[in-house]
Design a protein that fits this description.
It contains 23 helices and 22 strands. The chain has 769 residues and is an alpha+beta fold.
């Protein structure tokens, strides 16, 4: 089924080689449904992150498996390799921390990760990013290297003295190293000018390398210090290697977890790119594969097939090169992918839970065992028949071919009957007429065929369920220009019964094709109607919005009148309270009467406003399965599942499902409710005028700015203002990044963006609450 090629394809979506390694060694069919359930759900978590754009980037993560293997084998490790281990521990910890806590199942799956931060710190203390050993790798090494620097300075002073005094006798004006000793390059004819030990000469003999007596002692010191340095470095590396060997198992476990994370990232990115779905196999025998595609066929050439089966098996027939084998492989791959927690390349996939897949596909000829193609097929089928059970899937390509058609058909029918008795799910292809008839007669089997256009002699690659296919061998030969006499003779050679059955099959196929074409035309018409309906609904909403906006002045005026009356009543009551001892009872009665009149007017105003607002108030709907909703990122879809505090939404026009929290979505209400909601908002116009829609936090730190932003957002929401502007300045960008991080996490923010250039550009952020 070319599983290895498909795994290689998905692995290209990995961020690092860790993901690629996982696909090479760890992908498997899960035989425990509980374990498979967990893996599918974790895959869906990563898929949700891929859709939302919250996957953490693993690019650049140091690759260390080969280095750890060298340490395990006690092989020499270079400084840069040590440093890579430290970088892996640092970056791997950040990756693990990012993905822990996102989902309980994922957190539990990667819980064995060990940070090993102390080991990371040890490595970073010893090595520079280039893999060089630092001077302060240890106190002793620092002392030794300081001593080396001191002796080198003293040697330099001595060389400068020699150079200034004997420059005309020197071949070079810089010291040279010979046999681990620093020397001067002296012209051979000037050997007696300087006292010292000759340690070598040039190839030409023109230059002698002399260690002057004045630096012999310094050279001895330097040699001794170099020896001490080497011993100390060996000690440091030995200790560090011991720590790595001690923690080898933990590091390898960390590598496995990073491989697992990167592989899930690859699966999610592949599923998003290819519009694939993650599906959990069920415990019934029903199969539904909507618009199934083969992963290795280019997008522009793929012809999707629909497979629906509620019986024990399906027999696919039809002409050569019609797509039978590709369909068979596509079905097998769908089963494998679903049982390996990999995305299935289909719009919808419902697949029974199985434990094994058995295949007999392709040319099985084996010269080394003196087996013909037919014999090799039989041997493979023998192994399948001995192994299958009710939890198996069996795929057989070209059943009964390679031998006499009559004997092949008899044997094939017997094999199918035996398989039906043992209970696996069966998908088989065949050319044999006896098998076509058997697929129609056997109630446990479903006939199917690959569609073929006899007019153009080209396969359509569409799977027709319920109708066996004709081979069209003679028609194809005739269309290709074979001699008419041969065509006529071949038709005569066909017995009448066979010819009639082939005509019936051909006619059934034609009827089905016409039916499919009619359905396609109807589908296109429905799409056009839906598009037109949507356009008119949008126009209607715009008209209703204009109608609501036209009522705004009236509503605002009523609001202001009510506000004024409230102020007057408060004033009257205040006067009564202050002057109750100074005015007589008649005056009090008069004031109370005025208050009652004002209250009466207020009530009339309230009723008038309520009348205008009748039907405009909306209560927050409870989210239910099947409800149309809109997410905070403006994605619209239908609620598919509600589990605990998570709501799964299927995006409109796509098989993709995304999980949201209740605070991230809202129901898409009908036009009447939308109208009332918009009018309800307009009543708050007077409150907006008292709240600024702009906040200036230039000069603040991030910690100082957050409380101000929280209050600003709260004021906007309570005042009904939908948009505000935060001025943070440009500067280093640290304040802006901190603000954006806060806004990204806030459930009160619907959207935010950098302001237009005339509003401050990158120095300001516009928020939508």
């Amino acid at each position: 089924m070319e599983i290895e090629k498909i795994l290689n394809l998905i692995s290209t979506y990995s961020h690092t080689d860790y993901g690629k390694d996982y696909f090479l060694k760890n992908v498997k069919m899960y035989k425990d449904l509980t374990e498979l359930d967990r893996e599918v759900n974790i895959s869906r978590v990563f898929f949700d992150m891929a859709i939302k754009g919250t996957l953490k980037d693993l690019y650049g993560l140091s690759y260390i498996p080969s280095i750890i293997e060298k340490i395990g084998n006690k092989e020499s490790v270079e400084g840069r390799e040590f440093r890579k281990i430290g970088e892996f521990l640092q970056d791997g910890y950040a990756i693990h921390k990012h993905y822990s806590g996102i989902n309980d199942l994922l957190t539990d799956k990667i819980s064995d990760y060990k940070p090993l931060l102390e080991l990371k710190d040890q490595i970073f203390k010893v090595f520079t990013p280039e893999g060089e050993i630092k001077d302060n790798a240890s106190i002793e090494l620092k002392r030794i290297r300081n001593g080396i620097d001191t002796v080198k300075r003293q040697l330099n002073i001595e060389f400068n003295k020699i150079k200034s005094k004997y420059i005309k006798y020197l071949s070079l004006d810089q010291p040279v190293e010979r046999n681990g000793r620093l020397c001067i390059a002296l012209k051979s004819e000037s050997r007696n000018v300087i006292k010292g030990i000759t340690v070598g000469r040039s190839d030409s003999g023109a230059t002698l390398f002399v260690e002057p007596d004045t630096i012999i002692e310094l050279n001895e010191k330097l040699t001794d210090l170099f020896s001490q340095e080497k011993n100390e470095i060996n000690r440091i590396l030995s200790n560090l290697t011991f720590e790595l060997q001690k923690n080898k198992f933990k590091i390898e476990k960390n590598i496995e977890i990073i491989e697992y994370i990167d592989a899930n990232i690859a699966k999610a990115r592949y599923a998003k790119d290819m519009n694939a779905v993650f599906t959990l196999p069920h415990t019934t025998k029903k199969i539904l594969l909507k618009e199934l595609k083969h992963p290795l066929i280019p997008k522009e050439k793929i012809v999707p097939i629909d497979v629906e089966l509620d019986k024990n098996g399906m027999i696919i027939t039809g002409p050569n090169t019609g797509g039978k084998t590709v369909s068979l492989k596509s079905i097998g791959l769908a089963f494998f992918m679903a049982h390996s927690a990999l995305p299935v390349l289909a719009l919808k996939a419902e697949i029974p839970f199985i434990e094994e897949i058995y295949t007999d596909i392709g040319d099985q000829q084996d010269i080394s065992q003196n087996l013909s193609t037919f014999s090799a097929h039989l041997l493979n089928l023998k192994n399948i028949l001995e192994s299958v059970n009710e939890k198996s899937l069996v795929l057989i390509d070209e059943l009964g071919t390679g031998t006499d058609p009559i004997e092949g058909a008899a044997l094939s029918k017997a094999i199918l009957k035996y398989l039906l008795m043992k209970g696996p799910i069966i998908f088989a292809t065949s050319h044999l007429s006896e098998i076509k008839t058997f697929s129609l007669e056997e109630e446990k089997l479903l006939a199917a065929s690959m569609s073929f256009d006899i007019e153009t002699l080209k396969p359509t690659y569409k799977l027709i369920v319920g109708v066996p296919g004709a081979s069209h061998a003679i028609e194809i030969a005739e269309r290709l220009g074979i001699d008419p006499k041969i065509i006529e003779e071949s038709k005569i050679n066909l017995n009448e019964e066979f010819s009639q059955s082939e005509k019936i099959l051909s006619r059934l196929t034609s009827i089905h094709n016409e039916y499919e074409e009619s359905l396609e035309r109807i589908k296109k018409k429905e799409e056009e109607i839906d598009k037109t309906k949507k356009e008119y609904e949008e126009k209607l909403q715009k008209l209703k919005k204009k109608e609501i906006e036209s009522l705004e002045p009236e509503l605002y005026q009523l609001k202001e009148q009510i506000k004024n009356m409230r102020n007057q009543i408060q004033t009257v009551l205040k006067e009564i309270k202050q002057k109750k001892d100074q005015i007589d009872s008649q005056e009090i009665s008069k004031k109370l009467k005025e208050s009652e009149n004002m209250a009466s007017q207020l009530e009339e105003m309230r009723k008038a406003l309520s009348q205008n607002q009748k039907g405009r108030k909306i209560e927050k709907s409870k989210i239910k399965v099947g409800m149309k909703v809109k997410a905070s990122n403006n994605i619209q879809g239908t609620v598919k599942r509600i589990t605990n505090s998570k709501i799964t939404v299927q995006i409109d026009g796509s098989p993709i499902e995304i999980t949201y929290s209740p605070t991230e979505i809202e129901p898409i209400i009908n036009s009447d409710k939308e109208k009332s909601e918009e009018k309800r908002i307009y009543v708050k116009i007077d409150q907006k005028k008292s709240v600024k829609s702009e906040l200036d936090i230039r000069g603040y730190t991030v910690n100082e700015a957050i409380p101000e932003i929280e209050k600003f957002i709260s004021d906007l929401i309570s005042s009904g203002i939908k948009e505000g502007r935060i001025i943070h300045g440009k500067g280093t960008g640290k304040l802006a990044m901190g603000i954006w991080d806060y806004l990204r996490k806030s459930s009160l923010i619907k959207d935010f963006k950098i302001a237009r250039s005339e509003e401050g550009g990158t120095g300001a952020t516009v928020i939508e609450v």
